[in-house]
Amino acid sequence: MTTADAEPAAATAAYAGLRRQDPELADVVLGELARQSTSLQLIAAENFTSQAVLTALGSPLANKYAEGYPGARHHGGCELVDVAERIATDRAKALFGADHANVQPHSGSAAVLAAYAALLRPGDTVLAMGLPYGGHLTHGSPANFSGRWFDFVGYGLDPETGLIDYDQVRALARTHRPKAIVCGSIAYPRHIDYAAFRAVADDVGAHLIADAAHPVGLVAGGAAPNPVPYADVVCATTHKVLRGPRGGMILCRGELAERVDRAVFPFTQGGAQMHTIAAKAVAFGEAATPAFTAYAHQVVANAKVLAEALAGEGFDISTGGTDTHLILADPAPQGVTAAVARGRLAAAGLVLDTCALPHGDGRGLRLGTAAVTTQGMGEGEMARIAALFAGAVREEAKVRDGVRELAGRFPPYPSAGTSAERGGSAPA
Ligand SMILES: Cc1ncc(COP(=O)(O)O)c(C=O)c1O
């Protein structure tokens, strides 16, 4: 099948200009639309934005240089982008109950870098989840600025339960006296007890940084606890369950606002990306609607059903289930490694990642329900996905056809690759 064969007719119309001017790139863009529409996106960090978010991203705000903050820019002509940024920060503050929001970080990593810059000095000790247990690169990887510039101590997970051992966190904090404690993970499927982390931080006089890149969308929809009342600084991405454009955000208490803002610009970034900030504002507006609250709860309901069904298919589910959009599954009982399983799943059109497991040295499969839930799938479809998943790992025939059939019934962009009449947004 060629890319052109896979293109919905309306999508072809929507991208006619690009195809005329640059057919090589049009093939890539429309090929990617076809890939996303004919396979199942189970990568826990991905989602489908609304058309309104895509429209803001592709708007003339992309042309605008805007170093600084609203009302205090180093460039002229910022009157309107100032309005966009104020709308974004006001919506973020209201959504999460934060005193202050900075919506400029270009990514989740940039948000974490700025949080460290605001609170720490090079060489300071930081306590965070160890990378082998689900800590992010920015939580002390030697390959990342964090591991190079700070002295990270890692806490682990209970090897039996896969849960955070808060007694271990407290003991490590008392021994190492960190300047900051980071809570947040790329794969932890359970709610984090922010009050417990706050108590440990207070016990040793450390700052508490919540890296809520994954759960922040669930927080917006009232389906996960909010770290804002507990953490000094909350870092987040805007593109996961939150369903906005790729980017980062920082929330903090009023007294840290100036330090955080200076840590983002001019310390770690130059000009803000105003088209992305406008798209973040659109996404925050969508996330404040009852439709998004229902979506966030459905994401979790779907993940619980999918985790249970995968357990029924013989996968070992870390922590025995999930509270969130995330599932961590060990395929070892099927007699395959995570790398082999991921390859078989990819061949069948089930797209996901491998990830460290809390026990042993092996890796597991990390998957999430944010994208398939945006497509409108519910509990019934989760049971079907679990059957397809198990069939793919066992290399059964016809699984690719089953995935294509299921995905085809829930197109992410039904009209023209461009609809997303959801989340309270008006289709552009
Ligand atoms: C916990 C956590 N922190 C930070 C990030 C970094 O986000 P980005 O990829 O936007 O830099 C991620 C991304 O997956 C994450 O899961």
TrEMBL record:
<comment type="similarity">
    <text>Belongs to the SHMT family.</text>
</comment>
<dbReference type="InterPro" id="IPR015422">
    <property type="entry name" value="PyrdxlP-dep_Trfase_small"/>
</dbReference>
<dbReference type="InterPro" id="IPR049943">
    <property type="entry name" value="Ser_HO-MeTrfase-like"/>
</dbReference>
<dbReference type="InterPro" id="IPR015424">
    <property type="entry name" value="PyrdxlP-dep_Trfase"/>
</dbReference>
<comment type="pathway">
    <text>One-carbon metabolism; tetrahydrofolate interconversion.</text>
</comment>
<comment type="function">
    <text>Catalyzes the reversible interconversion of serine and glycine with tetrahydrofolate (THF) serving as the one-carbon carrier. This reaction serves as the major source of one-carbon groups required for the biosynthesis of purines, thymidylate, methionine, and other important biomolecules. Also exhibits THF-independent aldolase activity toward beta-hydroxyamino acids, producing glycine and aldehydes, via a retro-aldol mechanism.</text>
</comment>
<feature type="region of interest" description="Disordered">
    <location>
        <begin position="408"/>
        <end position="428"/>
    </location>
</feature>
<dbReference type="InterPro" id="IPR015421">
    <property type="entry name" value="PyrdxlP-dep_Trfase_major"/>
</dbReference>
<comment type="subunit">
    <text>Homodimer.</text>
</comment>
<keyword id="KW-0808">Transferase</keyword>
<feature type="site" description="Plays an important role in substrate specificity">
    <location>
        <position position="239"/>
    </location>
</feature>
<protein>
    <recommendedName>
        <fullName>Serine hydroxymethyltransferase</fullName>
        <ecNumber>2.1.2.1</ecNumber>
    </recommendedName>
</protein>
<dbReference type="Pfam" id="PF00464">
    <property type="entry name" value="SHMT"/>
</dbReference>
<dbReference type="InterPro" id="IPR039429">
    <property type="entry name" value="SHMT-like_dom"/>
</dbReference>
<feature type="domain" description="Serine hydroxymethyltransferase-like">
    <location>
        <begin position="19"/>
        <end position="387"/>
    </location>
</feature>
<keyword id="KW-0663">Pyridoxal phosphate</keyword>
<keyword id="KW-0554">One-carbon metabolism</keyword>
<feature type="binding site">
    <location>
        <position position="255"/>
    </location>
    <ligand>
        <name>(6S)-5,6,7,8-tetrahydrofolate</name>
    </ligand>
</feature>
<keyword id="KW-0963">Cytoplasm</keyword>
<feature type="binding site">
    <location>
        <position position="131"/>
    </location>
    <ligand>
        <name>(6S)-5,6,7,8-tetrahydrofolate</name>
    </ligand>
</feature>
<feature type="binding site">
    <location>
        <begin position="135"/>
        <end position="137"/>
    </location>
    <ligand>
        <name>(6S)-5,6,7,8-tetrahydrofolate</name>
    </ligand>
</feature>
<dbReference type="InterPro" id="IPR001085">
    <property type="entry name" value="Ser_HO-MeTrfase"/>
</dbReference>
<keyword id="KW-0028">Amino-acid biosynthesis</keyword>
<feature type="modified residue" description="N6-(pyridoxal phosphate)lysine">
    <location>
        <position position="240"/>
    </location>
</feature>
<comment type="pathway">
    <text>Amino-acid biosynthesis; glycine biosynthesis; glycine from L-serine: step 1/1.</text>
</comment>
